[in-house]
Amino acid sequence: MSQISEAEAVVMEVLWRSHPLGADEVVTALASRDWAEPTIKTLLNRLLTKGAISASRDGRRYLYSPVLQRQAWVAEQSEGFLDRVFDGRVAPLVAHFSQRGELSAQDIAELKQLILELGHD
User: Fold this and answer.
1) pLDDT by residue for the chain (121 residues), tens digit each?
2) SS3 per residue for the chain
3) Residue 15: which of 80, 60, 73, 58 has the closest Cα?
4) What is the per-residue burial (b if ≥16 Cβ within 10 Å, else e) of 49-62?
5) Rounded to an integer, what is the distance from CA 41 to the centroid of its chain?
6) pTM tops 0.85
7) Does the record carry Kinase as a key word (predicted)?
8) Omega into 38 within 30° of 0, i.e. cis?
9) Residues pairing with 63 in the sheet
10) Beta-carbon-side half-sphere exposure of residue 67 (alpha carbons within 13 Å)
């Protein structure tokens, strides 16, 4: 599957939350973005061409549903980011956010729990 753009990912988020949806419903869901309707329809067509979504006919309109699962997309995006920015390593990523003071007490507690769980495998 081809890489999806940042704008296409915004449309995907709408479809991941609720589907199937018609183009008009996607336009309504993205009203706060100030994107023109033709722009959103172009993004839907691109996603359809890339195989990220499917379309089924419902009378005179099409209903769109995701084919690409959000979890698979997140995994692909995070691996790409780690590879590009942190040479594929998680520890420097966590250190980066820690040094910038961007880890909350809850984040730290969750990371400690994950490390404990990993140690028991």
Assistant:
1) 679 999 999 999 999 999 999 999 999 999 999 999 999 999 999 999 999 999 999 999 999 999 999 999 999 888 888 999 999 898 898 888 888 888 899 999 999 999 999 887 5
2) CCCCCHHHHHHHHHHHHCCCEEHHHHHHHCHHHCCCHHHHHHHHHHHHHHCCEEEEEECCEEEEEECCCHHHHHHHHHHHHHHHHHCCCHHHHHHHHHHCCCCCHHHHHHHHHHHHHHHCC
3) 73
4) ebebbebeeeeeeb
5) 19
6) no
7) no
8) no
9) 22, 56
10) 15
| Residue whose tokens read 């009378």 | 59
AA letter at 50: K
Instruction: Tokens 């990220």: give the residue.
Output: 52
Query: What does the radius of gyration of the chain's CA atoms come to, in whole angstroms?
Result: 19
